[in-house]
Design a protein that fits this description.
The protein is of the alpha+beta class. Helices cover about 40% and strands about 20% of the residues. The protein has one domain (about 1-130).
Length: about 140
Amino acid sequence: MSDQWQYQLRLYLADELAEAARRDAGAPVLGALPRILAKHGATMKCQLDAFAGYVAEAEAQGIDGYPLYAWTKATIEDPVKKAKHLRSFALHVKDREVYPKEEADALEADLQPLVDGTRITRLSRHDTNPANNPQMPERFRKPQA
């Protein structure tokens, strides 16, 4: 029943590419990457920036409505995790965070040749199947009322 799941691809970039990608997703230093993303209607979102945006929104709106607030805030304040997430970019297709398998397959096939282990260090695939996704650590969960 894998048809029920949606997918997301993530790229992991070397420090200098990650910095360029955060400033300008079309930067020449990124080589063919912007062209491939455009072909698929895809954009990159730095995971650290996404986490920081979530925290800022939660703080502006009231953290009670944001169940991942404490975990996300702790993540972006941890120097090791911060460095990791600065290099990680979620790929959104047609403004969607997750997308059908066929779209993920096509994008992955076009991106795979760019993964050289140095500049683009890794490409990963994630799905919406809860069994495949780590759960928030217990210490960050709010007690049930």
